[in-house]
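Hey, sorry to bother you again with one of my protein questions. A protein chain has come my way and I'm curious about its shape. I'm sending you its amino acid sequence along with the backbone structure tokens. I owe you a coffee for this, so here goes:
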Amino acid sequence: QVQLVESGGGLVQAGGSLRLSCAASGRSFSSYAMGWFRQAPGKEREFVAAISNSGGSRYYADSVKGRFTISRDNVKNTVSLRMNSLKPEDTAVYYCAADLSISSVATMNRVDYWGQGTQVTVSS
């Protein structure tokens, strides 16, 4: 079992930055690929970014490439999402997720573990 707790959400003006963090507890964090997803009101949950268990591979949705950066610390058992140049359309609840398969995370296919989410609101 892996428990995930997100933090760092909040209200920010367009053009601003936020850093989301996800703390993982449980076994073998370094075995898991990690990802960030988001869900805006009235929309389906969508993939944002993923990182392999070693951190050597990273994937991003086209909508966030060049603005968001995913990283992880396998000593502290955390994964982060640095979000720059935020836009109102980035407003959503952001979820952290974990799975043994980077493919599952990157395609949001049958991901095993999810956090409870943290709200990000970008004002125009």
About this structure: The first strand starts at residue 2 and ends at 7.
